[in-house]
Design a protein that fits this description.
- By secondary structure, the chain is α/β, with parallel strands linked by helices.
- The protein has one domain: Alpha-Beta Barrel (TIM Barrel), CATH 3.20.20.
- Strands 6-5-4-3-2-1-7-8 form an eight-stranded mixed sheet.
- Helix 2 packs parallel to helix 3, helix 3 runs parallel beside helix 4 and helix 9 runs parallel beside helix 15.
- The radius of gyration is 20 Å and the shape is globular.
- It binds iron/sulfur cluster.
- The site of iron/sulfur cluster (SF4) has 14 residues, from helix 13, helix 14 and helix 15.
């Protein structure tokens, strides 16, 4: 039985105009972007619009569509308009559209297009200038902070800013002060914050992690949780809200935590259907299915019904005995599959962030036990 698709990620541009030091697209195991066209063609866009309309008619739930890259705004205004207007025509309004951008290419005409097509914007920024520019750099190593900030200000000045701006996405840098990052983003007036752990695995440790037993990122997120809880008017932080919900018996809203399966369909720049692109950080081709599925030749509902697609979705459930025996499995979920990889054992490992997860979960549980009525 197939799991209905809940998220569609469109890699509308395979290149980026900046070169963050931690980016899985260019800096880790995979060279697949070199085999892709730099941006989606008109014919691929038209095929996607048609195929996603068909998919929605064959399943009983809506899905979220995220434009991703590289940098998705490199697609250019004309092709973006074709894609977004096409999707708005072929899909019901309940299917949300969003763009994950580095913000440096945001302009008022582009924002007008995003407003017209009810597309929201999340901007990647890692904190104040010194923190952001230590990793989010251009190809000449110059920082991107000012250009990103200019994009955020352009977004916030737009008459439809409240509907357009969904929040920021920040990659955790464990050597920084979480309070400083939170205060900075809060001071920017962002409506929500998302945080991601740096990519890495057992064979190539994430930046900032000393070893499997260390918990730098867990401590950082626990510090962020404390700052968040002490703010009388907090800005929502999805990863921490999800953790609290799971500890109180609810469900997470996104992949990477808890026991629920997410069905995420990825369409690459040439129209190829792939696994979650974060798997590119494991080995060259780690995000590829054996079958050469493409929107140019295959119906998405047929792909989703195959055993290979089901196996890919099931990968979210960990297989390693340490996870299967873990008392925190129902909260942690084993973390995202990319973090479980090692060159010798494949995905049959606990998350490389296991100790971080345990540290953060016990920190938040202690807080809830102390603050909620018994
Ligand atoms: S990654 Fe670690 S904390 Fe998470 S379920 Fe596996 S053993 Fe438990």
């Amino acid at each position: 039985m197939s799991v209905p698709v809940d998220t569609v990620l469109l890699k509308v541009a395979s290149r980026c105009n900046i070169a963050c030091s931690y980016c899985y697209v260019y800096q880790l195991g995979d060279q697949g972007w070199q085999r892709q066209p730099s941006a989606m063609s008109q014919s691929t866009i038209d095929a996607i619009v048609g195929r996603l309309g068909e998919l929605r008619r064959t399943q009983d739930r809506d899905f979220a569509i995220v434009l991703h890259g590289g940098e998705p705004l490199l697609l250019g205004e004309a092709l973006l308009a074709r894609l977004l207007n096409g999707l708005r025509t072929s899909l019901p309004p309940e299917c949300t559209l969003s763009v994950q951008t580095n913000g440096t290419l945001l302009t008022t005409p582009l924002l007008n297009l995003l407003e017209e097509t009810e597309t929201t914007v999340s901007v990647s920024i890692d904190g104040p200038k010194e923190i952001n520019d230590s990793r989010r750099v251009r190809f000449d190593q110059s920082g991107t902070f000012e250009a990103t900030l200019a994009g955020i200000r352009c977004l916030q000045r737009h008459p439809a800013a409240e509907r357009l701006f969904s929040g920021t996405l920040t990659v955790v840098e464990p050597s920084t002060d979480p309070g400083e990052v939170y205060s900075f983003l809060r001071g920017l007036g962002v409506p929500g914050m998302s945080f991601l752990l740096p990519d890495g695995n057992h064979s190539r440790l994430p930046p900032g992690k000393a070893g499997f037993d260390s918990h730098e990122a867990g401590e950082w997120l626990a510090g962020l949780f404390d700052v968040y809880m002490s703010d009388p008017d907090p800005v929502p932080i999805r990863v921490l809200d999800d953790l609290v919900k799971l500890l109180l018996g609810g469900s997470a809203s996104k992949e990477g935590m808890g026991p629920d399966l997410n069905s995420i369909l990825i369409i690459d720049t040439d129209g190829t259907v792939t696994k979650n692109d974060t798997l590119k950080s494991t080995f060259d081709g780690g995000d590829r299915f054996d079958e050469p599925w493409s929107v140019h030749s295959h119906a998405l509902q047929d792909i989703v019904r195959t055993g290979a697609f089901r196996d890919y979705v099931e990968m979210q459930h960990p297989t390693n005995q340490q996870c299967l025996r873990c008392p925190e499995l129902s909260v942690c979920g084993g973390g995202m599959p990319l973090y479980r990889w090692s060159d010798d054992r494949g995905f049959d490992n606990p998350s490389v962030y296991c100790t971080d997860h345990l540290f953060l979960i016990s920190h938040v549980r202690r807080y809830l036990n102390a603050h909620l009525p018994a």
